[in-house]
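HUMAN: I'm a chemist; might I ask for a sequence paired with its structure tokens?

ASSISTANT:
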Amino acid sequence: MALKQDMNFNGTWQLVNSHNLQPFLKACGVSFMRRNLAKAVSPLVYITQDGDKFTIRTDTVHRSITQNFCIGVAFKCCLPWEAEECLMIARWEGNKLVVQLVDDEEKRGPVFVRYLEDDQLVLEQEMDNVLCKRYFKKK
């Protein structure tokens, strides 16, 4: 397992900007009503990182989702727009934290990529070649 000690995602992050969220959610099969609800909320993300171990909690006024995982170890979690759990896995790609469905070489499910850029946390979300970027500032 590739430990990225130089990457420190720890902190509380507030959404400041989103690009292409609606088309991404549509590609994921999210209903029109839920897509409109999603664009109206401003999530607060709490990240605790200890080497390759992560806890990522995303809070909105409607829901709180917590992911606990270690790089290279499959884990169960809920996608923000679904109620049932799916099996995910995380890995490092350079200085980027990549999370996707287990056994998803055919890219059937969304891919989530987090990385630090200047003073922001960037979350790239991709599904069916539709890319959404969300930018967060540390509180």
Q: What stands out?
A: The longest helix spans residues 32-40. Helices lie at 21-27, 32-40. The mean pLDDT is 90. The chain has one domain: 11-138.
